[in-house]
Specification:
The structure is a homodimer of 481-residue chains.
Chain A: H1 5-11, H2 18-23, E1 31-43, E2 47-53, E3 61-66, E4 82-91, E5 98-102, E6 110-115, H3 130-134, H4 144-166, E7 170-171, E8 177-178, E9 189-193, E10 206-208, H5 213-223, E11 225-233, E12 246-255, H6 260-279, H7 287-293, H8 298-313, E13 319-321, H9 322-333, H10 348-359, E14 363-366, E15 394-399, E16 403-411, H11 415-424, H12 433-436, E17 446-452, H13 453-460
Parallel strand pairs in A: 3-5, 7-11, 13-14
Antiparallel strand pairs in A: 1-2, 1-4, 2-3, 4-5, 4-6, 8-10, 9-10, 11-12, 12-17, 14-15, 15-16, 16-17
Helix pairs in contact in A: 4-6, 4-7, 9-10
Chain lengths: 481, 481
């Protein structure tokens, strides 16, 4: 007997979530218990209507309390109070199929205030701006919109985990603390024991990781395909709506990959899989539906819907090389201004134009100039490689309205090429001996990519500021708790 | 059309994993391609036998190369080389159902070395000790045992994610960087921008989190039930086989929980669910089976099997209070020595005896003395509370051979009680204003727990040293890459 029956019985003594109350509907006219916070109150002479929400679902529960002639019940009279409601699960005459009726005089029925609120409780029914809510880090997730973002993020993460499992990618936990500082000291955080008597705790300087890639490459060389969703850190003094100092990055490394198209197809498949699952109503409770139900304005809902439609409807996301992209921009966008030259950066403005206006689709841009990219990318395939203007085998996924969402590449698997490239960039290969050793011990062709998880969530949920999809966002000067 | 057919076709150009080759068996006598590292080589006059493994499965592929009279093939002659094999998928005369035959003279058949190894390649067929392998951080996951641990950990994580989804717990990402240092400065890491010209990057000192609990409580107060699996950090100078400076902690907070038994039942259910799923062979590829297949010694396999049997077979895990536990230890274990007094710590040795010898089962110990526990735990329920010897509403899950695996409690939800308790411990409530504010704004009864994820994986996989279940373990003086 693997799962004793007592567990089901005892564990179910926790009050059900409101999501469960709607999904696993109790028999009509039976008594139920539910808990949550009061979202709104309407008082009438004989009845008081409460909206009760617990953040488990976009739906709130309509509770009808029978009054005894007075206008207000003694309890449960302030928005924000947490309550336990015992009442009858009845058919509704309102917009929802069911509601809870608290019958005055029924000894089994009650509305009990579990925790009250001050008169100036700041989360009211009226639609506060997301900017205002950022000043309320401990209360802002009481709003429908921000609660729905957290649920959405949770659902998307599970959906991605299933995609990777189906594709035989092993989830790994690369280190957060690392002694490799390959992206330059100006943008990393350094870590020390607060107890200085420990001296150098790790005997050498330790940093917070900026990317798990190098460690993932090591693990992919043993496990074939690996992925992770891990916190990464950048000590950048950026105050934009798309940067965080602490963010979660989804990274994957796949062995035996030899062409960029294998990676871009994998990425397209991954994002499409997530979208297909989130649109479905059964398998994961309808993530998209839950998201849309939590928005107040039709304009917001429209923005989300059109993004999802554009991701899903196009037969295949186009893929163009950097060289082709320069040409396209010069021919169609830059006619009046100075043309871009080979080697120039493609600006975020140009990226948004390329995806949003020109292709009207997510687009892969591949084979960027070597000088724009890190040391570990191999030359582009011989059919397009030009030693005068060397490009490397990499890609960015560019999304309308946002710009870069995913970046990836093949990884140079030849030791000598790697060492030459590092030296030409003034890097000391000795400090990366551990990484380079994989190229001497049964090196395999491989490639991978990284995706800023908050950016994906912000894009899919139609949120402009990445700080609103992070539960406790960290940015310069912002670490209040 | 949501998922264009080109994706299936193009994406599948990545060589299949060996796990896929076994699971989605190709038609007999068809040609297949597979990639991996050579695990062993046996040369005979006419045939060479290779074992090829890619870390995707406990199974390695048997490859039979036909030689042309010489003993050795020109290529593929060293253990550790990575190879691409093109050959025929045939029925086997050996222990496996199928094998790959590389027919000499067939122009479509070949064994190509993708990356060679030095003569002293350290991962050989012979069973290296885990301690020896710890000195090879970039190669140790080439071994069957350690690769299987990573796959196992990945599978258990997915299984847990499904359990929490079914139980309406929202996965959240609490912050890693925090300005709350509630566990004392001696054991935390402090974080600064490596670029000192930034000054205090966050305007106040920032630390690496030691536990997500306080932030989870905040989120649970909005989302009802939340959980996370996040890195935590302790700057402890511990060199034991059960401590890491960087580890992943599974934490959950559930609202509207009022009894310890609701939490202990939840935890028991969670662990049993994972065990049931991992034993199954279909839903997730047989995690336990994969684990056992990767062990060399019958003794190792026996150890794992007996642990799993003991977890699953007992009808209900017992639950005893701290006061009862002291009595049990004094009556049955401590007869000859000094008796334990109320208020004494229960040592790890006593914990192991309690679970392993006395109950022969995992056991919950509840209601520890207040002085042994943090400030946020409420008094035990009135039926057992004694103001002379105050206990608090908490529990530890004690596991045979290991000791504590999970710790949890109800959380004090009354503001005044919390403030009194903090002051009595010399804590300054002003520094925790953000946390305390949840008790003023619709406070809810709630409780939760934390589980050291590496400890769970180590226990379930029968591994003694926690450093062997962490891909890149971090400990004092150990941060090599």
């Amino acid at each position: 007997m693997l799962r004793p029956p007592h567990l089901v019985a005892r564990y179910s003594t926790i009050a059900p979530t409101i999501r469960d109350i709607f999904h696993k509907s109790a028999p009509i006219n039976s008594d139920i218990t539910c808990c949550g916070h009061i979202k709104s109150i309407r008082n009438f002479k004989k009845l008081t209507f409460l909206d009760v929400s617990d953040g488990s679902s976009a739906q709130s529960l309509n509770v009808i309390m029978e009054n005894s002639g007075e206008n207000k019940p003694e309890n449960a009279h302030l928005v924000g109070q947490s309550v336990e409601v015992k009442g009858q699960w009845v058919e509704s005459r309102g917009t929802q199929a069911n509601e809870v009726r608290v019958v005055r005089g029924n000894p089994n029925h009650s509305v009990t205030v579990l925790g009250t609120v001050p008169e100036n409780y700041p989360i009211q029914k009226k639609n506060s701006t997301l900017q205002f809510l950022r000043g309320l880090p401990t209360l802002r997730h009481r709003t429908s919109t921000l609660a729905s973002i957290v649920r959405f993020r949770s659902g998307i993460e599970l959906s991605l985990a299933k995609f990777f499992e189906e594709n035989r990618c092993v989830k790994v936990s690369p280190p957060i603390l690392t002694s490799s500082d390959c992206e330059g000291a100006g943008k990393v955080f350094i870590v020390e024991s607060a107890n200085k008597s420990n001296g150098k705790f790790f005997e050498k300087p330790a940093f917070l990781t900026v990317s798990a890639q190098l460690h993932l490459e090591v693990l992919a060389s043993s496990l074939n395909r690996v992925w992770c969703l891990s916190p990464c850190f950048r000590a950048e003094d950026s105050h934009t709506n798309r940067h965080l100092c602490e963010f979660w990055m989804l990274e994957a490394e796949l062995s035996y990959v030899t062409e960029i198209a294998q990676l871009t197809d994998f990425v397209e498949n991954m994002i499409r899989s997530v979208i297909v699952e989130a649109r479905g109503s059964s398998s994961n409770g309808g993530l998209l539906q839950d998201l849309l139900q939590s928005r107040y304005s039709e304009e917001d809902r429209q923005k989300v819907t059109s993004r999802w439609d554009s991701l899903a409807s196009i037969e295949k996301w186009p893929s163009v090389t950097y060289n082709e992209t320069i040409k396209i921009i010069n021919e169609h966008k830059n006619k009046a201004s100075e043309p871009l030259l080979w080697g120039d950066d493609i600006s975020t403005e140009h990226e948004k134009w390329l995806a949003g206006t020109h292709f009207k689709s997510p687009v892969f841009v591949t084979d960027y100039p070597k000088a724009q990219k890190p040391f570990y990318m191999p030359n582009s395939n011989p059919a397009i490689f030009d030693s005068e203007r060397p490009n490397v085998a990499c890609f960015d996924l560019i999304i309308p309205e946002i710009g870069e969402l995913v970046g990836g590449s093949l990884r140079e698997c030849n030791l000598d090429n790697l060492v030459v490239e590092m030296k030409s960039r003034g890097m000391n290969p000795d400090t990366m001996e551990w990484y380079l050793s994989t190229r001497e011990n049964g090196s395999t062709p491989h490639g991978g990519f990284g995706l800023g998880f908050e950016r994906l969530i912000a894009y899919l949920s139609g949120i402009d500021n990445i700080k609103d999809v992070s539960a406790f966002p960290r940015a310069p000067g912002i670490c209040p708790c």
